[in-house]
């Protein structure tokens, strides 16, 4: 298939997505929109974690920390002055946050930037660690950020959290940034940098031997990943309109990690599918613990049953799909046409194989 | 001076509990290279089994202690059988997600079965006793946990270095495939490892509940995380290192609050900070072997 | 492949089961932490709602259906849960949630969707601030904190106190702040102000430090589980001062966990059967509660019981399920007779009601004093 044709198809798909968003924004109720937004944010977070984890092979558990930095920065830059004066009950907010108010897009990008700067600072020393040691060190940094957020009320309002964050987040923002994230990370992976990252994932020593700078590439991948985590955090803050440090506990990182692994480590398509599956499943499972009345027999509500079912489903999926739903496969137009082709002419399927 | 000594005693007491849980953590890691996030939940099960043994079945204390430890060991073996064994050939990260899944499952099953309401854990009178030396007060549980930790450490070192099973464990830990070729029964040995690790978690959980007499389904989360830090601090996979790591962590946490009370809000961050600093200087933990990767 | 199909079939079943046949009922949403660290709060809250629903099952001639959703003690889930109640279940009004941290994001969603909400036990001032559809049946922390501080300084005559605050809980931080302010204004001195975080179970270092000061009282505005452990470890380490706390301590579990170490704990709460604020509804509530659950009622259940009845009476007064009519009826509440005392709503949407001071004596909460607003 020619390159122009692919680009044409992609443009077409994006326009279709735009029409869908336009339709969804006015026809879906707020609840469905909320879950869709949340899923899209998870997709941004998942794809960015996949870059450092799936493509570079570095076991980073620090995503919640970068999200927290992005969320706080964005929020502090967009909350109206009036709300800041009202909600900072313990200590007043310090300058310059107390007077600044910026457009959402600038605040989001600054949130991402702050997260990225922080990633460079901690990445330089920490990325020398290997495997599980790196995992626990990054997890540690995320927890340290959370604990610090609890202890500096003059910036974060401590456990009281930030309130009155304007609800700018809608599908245009979330899905727009999902597309942007996928675009940037796909381009990065296809570039020579991406080759270097995958070389590091496969074998660090071999990569170094052929002249790939380990520190440079690892830190770069970590920083890009943190940038998008920060933006995801900012979008989440504006979706929730209130945040506090508890929202960024290590369970948050685990959720994103689950999305990445269920989707397939190293598959962007898989991550996006898993992000939507994860959030919609959690919501669809709600009725099972609500208890129901069949007229002749009524079942009482059983709190916790939803999460029990969810964790069992998670176990089943991971045990029967050890490489995730998509493995390392990606969605491509070629693959789609081959698939359609195979459905039309089932006889040919053996010759073509899987793309 | 009194305050310092008192804090030292507090640190020993907390450290011995961390050490006990960390040993179980590190054993499982040493064999499977698996961060068993469900260890904290196994720890919780131990405390609940004892609680129900005493309360519902009216068993005497010593008997329900034994029953609880055995049941927890079985629970640990079952998690390995159903959640980890099918994934033995899968990428390591899949097993980790499986461990997170087991952890979520046990926490929420705990809420469904035991209810989310904390239960009060009544301790026998002997553990209510406080020893008073001058102005220093030490609970009898502190002595019990130190003694028990040491006994288990000795027992473990014996098993690992002086028995055939231990030899098999060390063989698997070095190279699982070669061990299999050498006719080591891999599945059985891993089962035994989980049983021992879980039994240790149960003992830790019970001692923890005796010291902090409140049990609830999420009680394992923070101690589990701290024990994990302790295990990494000492060099993950190293039993003796886990013990040292546990004591260092307990002591450091207490002394931070003791000497710099204004920083008491940063206590949990401090545990991680110590860990990161140590890892930066000794990337494999205090006692860990520095494994040079072969080219 | 078969297993995959089975999996999707199961998922399909779950989706189908969510389609419920519509009936002629009035739906009221409840969002409470049924799982997670606050599960106990959710459980106690449900006892009150259920009892009230049993006694008052209808309004405007229609059956009331409580739609209960779990918020997992998590803020994101709390906002999702309220959004689901509003958009998916089409509830008329909402009740909840146990803690302030969970109520605030939920209240944001409800207020924006213009669905009235009655809050039972969340005491942080930010819950109702600037939200015209949100009302509450309890007092707020600035009042509670200053009431406690005055009680410490004036009634108990203690001039030096220590504080141990959970920095990860908005309730704890807020209440500590209001206590601190009033206590210092009165001329008292906070000799030690220490912190901990939710999930910590070892307080020996903090209590060793506090014991070494000459504090006559320790104020710990945490949740009862943590407080029970603090009280136990403090006494074991030789702390002899008075323990003081807020409404979260009025809970039978505190006595059960801390046992003899809870002796002498002083706390403010919403109601006590011996308090003069108790109404004719109080005795009915206590009798029915004991009959239904076979245990002594707790302050949380009283408040959720009253919140339910307050909402129902507002719907009755409004004469319709129109959100604005209910909102206006709630705003004009005056001298509503609840089991926990009479409730009048002020122009901020908060209840004006006295705080009751209780103390643990011989393993039971006894009435000490009433502090008027």
Structure explained in plain terms:
The complex is a heterotrimer of chains A (355), B (295) and C (373). Chain A has 355 residues and is mainly α. In chain A, 71% of the residues lie in helices and 0% in strands. In chain A, helix 2 (30-55) packs across helix 12 (250-263), helix 3 (63-78) packs parallel to helix 6 (131-151) and helix 8 packs across helix 9 (192-202). The longest helix of chain A has 27 residues, at 214-240. The radius of gyration of chain A is 22 Å and the shape is globular. Mean pLDDT of chain A is 88; it is low at 349-355. Chain B has 11 helices and 4 strands. In chain B, the strands form 2 sheets. Chain B has a two-stranded antiparallel ribbon. A two-stranded antiparallel ribbon of chain B has the order 2-3. Chain B has helices spanning 2-32, 39-55, 61-84, 92-114, 140-162, 164-174, 176-181, 186-211, 221-234, 239-259, 267-281, and strands at residues 119-120, 130-133, 136-139, 214-215. Chain B has one domain (2-148, 185-281). Chain B starts with a helix and ends in a 14-residue tail after the last helix. By secondary structure, chain C is α/β, with parallel strands linked by helices. In chain C, helix 2 crosses helix 11 and helix 8 runs parallel beside helix 9. In chain C, the strands form 3 sheets. Chain C has a 7-stranded mixed sheet, with helices on both faces. Chain C is built from 12 helices and 16 strands. Chains in contact: A-B, A-C, B-C. Chains A and B meet through helix 6, helix 10, helix 12 and helix 15 of A and helix 4, helix 9 and helix 11 of B.
Spell out the key features of this protein:
heterotrimer; B: 295 residues; two-stranded antiparallel sheet; two-stranded antiparallel ribbon; 4 strands; globular; C: 373 residues; alpha/beta; Rossmann fold; 2 domains; six-stranded mixed sheet; 43% helix
């Amino acid at each position: 298939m020619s390159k122009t044709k692919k680009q044409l198809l992609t443009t077409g798909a994006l326009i279709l997505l735009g029409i869908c968003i336009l339709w969804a924004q006015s026809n879906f109720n707020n609840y469905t929109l909320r879950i869709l937004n949340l899923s899209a944010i998870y997709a941004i977070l998942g794809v960015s974690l996949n870059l450092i984890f799936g493509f570079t092979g570095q076991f980073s558990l620090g995503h919640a920390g970068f999200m927290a930095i992005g969320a706080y920065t964005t929020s502090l830059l967009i909350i109206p002055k009036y709300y800041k004066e009202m909600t900072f009950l313990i200590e007043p907010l310090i300058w310059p946050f107390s007077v600044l108010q910026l457009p959402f897009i600038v605040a989001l990008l600054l949130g991402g930037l702050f997260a990225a700067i922080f990633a460079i600072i901690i990445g330089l020393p920490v990325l020398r660690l290997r495997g599980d040691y790196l995992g626990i060190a990054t997890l540690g940094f995320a927890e340290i950020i959370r604990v610090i957020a609890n202890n500096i009320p003059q910036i974060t309002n401590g456990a009281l959290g930030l309130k009155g964050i304007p609800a700018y987040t809608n599908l245009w923002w979330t899905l727009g940034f999902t597309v942007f994230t996928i675009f940037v990370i796909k381009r990065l992976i296809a570039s020579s940098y991406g080759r270097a990252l995958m070389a590091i994932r496969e074998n660090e020593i071999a990569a170094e031997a052929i002249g790939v700078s380990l520190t440079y590439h690892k830190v770069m991948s970590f920083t890009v990943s943190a940038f998008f985590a920060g933006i995801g955090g900012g979008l989440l803050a504006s979706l929730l309109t209130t945040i506090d440090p508890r929202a960024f506990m290590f369970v948050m990182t685990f959720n994103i990690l689950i999305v990445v692994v269920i989707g397939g480590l190293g598959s962007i398509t898989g991550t996006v599918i898993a992000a939507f599956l994860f959030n919609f499943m959690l919501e669809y499972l709600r009725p099972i613990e609500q208890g129901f009345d069949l007229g002749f027999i009524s079942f009482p509500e059983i709190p916790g049953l939803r999460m029990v079912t969810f964790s069992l489903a998670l176990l089943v999926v991971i045990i029967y799909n050890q490489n995730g739903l998509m493995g390392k496969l990606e969605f491509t137009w070629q693959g789609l046409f081959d698939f359609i082709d195979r459905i039309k002419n089932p006889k040919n399927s053996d010759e073509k194989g899987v793309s | 001076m009194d305050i310092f000594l008192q804090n030292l005693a507090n640190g020993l007491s907390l450290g011995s509990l961390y050490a006990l849980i960390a040993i179980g953590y590190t054993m499982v890691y040493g064999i499977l290279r698996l961060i068993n996030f469900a260890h904290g939940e196994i720890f919780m099960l131990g405390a609940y089994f004892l609680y129900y043994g005493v309360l519902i079945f009216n068993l005497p204390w010593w008997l329900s202690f034994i029953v609880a430890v055995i049941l927890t060991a079985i629970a640990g073996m079952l998690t390995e059988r159903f959640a980890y064994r099918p994934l033995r050939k899968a990428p390591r990260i899949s097993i980790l997600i499986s461990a997170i899944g087991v952890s979520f499952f046990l926490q929420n099953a705990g809420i469904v079965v035991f209810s989310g309401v904390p239960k009060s854990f009544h301790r026998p009178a002997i553990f209510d006793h406080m020893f008073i030396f001058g102005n220093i007060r030490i609970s009898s549980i502190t002595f019990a946990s130190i003694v028990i930790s040491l006994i288990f450490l000795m027992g473990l070192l014996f098993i690992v270095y002086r028995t055939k099973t231990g030899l098999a464990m060390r063989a698997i830990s070095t190279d699982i495939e070669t061990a299999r070729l050498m006719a080591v029964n891999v599945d059985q040995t891993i089962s035994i490892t989980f049983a021992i690790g879980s039994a240790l978690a149960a003992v830790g959980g019970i001692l923890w509940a005796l010291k902090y007499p409140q049990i609830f389904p999420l009680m394992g989360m923070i101690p589990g995380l701290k024990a994990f830090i302790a295990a990494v601090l000492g060099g993950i996979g190293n039993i003796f290192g886990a013990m040292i790591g546990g004591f260092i962590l307990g002591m450091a946490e207490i002394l931070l609050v003791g000497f710099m009370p204004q920083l008491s809000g940063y206590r949990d961050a401090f545990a991680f900070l110590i860990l990161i600093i140590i890892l930066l200087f000794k990337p494999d933990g205090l006692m860990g072997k520095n494994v040079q990767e072969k080219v | 492949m078969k297993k995959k199909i089975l999996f999707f079939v199961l998922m399909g079943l779950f989706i189908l089961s969510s389609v419920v046949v519509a009936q002629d009922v009035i739906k009221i949403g409840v969002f409470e932490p049924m799982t997670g660290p606050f599960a106990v709060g959710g459980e106690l809250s449900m006892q009150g709602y259920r009892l009230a629903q049993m006694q008052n099952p209808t309004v405007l001639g229609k059956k009331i259906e409580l739609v209960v959703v779990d918020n997992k003690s998590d803020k994101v889930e709390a906002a999702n849960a309220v959004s689901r109640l509003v958009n998916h279940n089409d509830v008329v009004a909402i009740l909840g949630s146990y803690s302030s941290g969970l109520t605030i994001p939920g209240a944001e969603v409800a207020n924006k969707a213009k669905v009235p909400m009655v809050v039972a036990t969340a005491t942080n001032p930010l819950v109702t601030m600037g939200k015209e559809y949100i009302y509450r049946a309890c007092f707020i922390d600035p009042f509670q904190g200053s009431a406690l501080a005055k009680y410490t300084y004036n009634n108990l005559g203690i001039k030096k106190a220590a504080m141990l605050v959970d920095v990860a809980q908005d309730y704890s931080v807020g209440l500590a702040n209001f206590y601190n302010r009033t206590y210092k204004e009165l001329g008292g001195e906070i000799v030690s102000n220490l912190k901990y975080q939710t999930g910590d179970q070892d307080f020996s270092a903090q209590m060793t430090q506090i014991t070494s000061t000459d504090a006559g009282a320790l104020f710990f505005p945490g949740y009862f589980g943590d407080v029970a452990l603090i009280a136990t470890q403090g006494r074991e380490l030789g702390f002899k001062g008075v323990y003081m706390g807020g409404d979260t301590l009025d809970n039978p579990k505190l006595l059960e966990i801390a046992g003899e170490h809870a002796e002498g704990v002083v706390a403010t709460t919403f109601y006590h059967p011996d308090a003069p604020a108790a109404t004719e509804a109080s005795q009915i509530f206590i009798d029915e509660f004991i009959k239904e659950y076979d245990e002594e009622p707790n302050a949380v259940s009283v408040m959720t019981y009253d919140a339910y009845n307050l909402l129902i009476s507002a719907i009755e007064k409004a004469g319709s399920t129109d959100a604005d009519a209910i909102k206006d009826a709630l705003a004009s509440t005056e001298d509503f007779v609840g089991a926990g005392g009479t409730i009048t709503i002020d122009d901020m949407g908060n209840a004006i009601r006295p705080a009751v001071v209780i103390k643990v004596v011989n393993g039971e909460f006894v009435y000490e004093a009433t502090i008027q607003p």
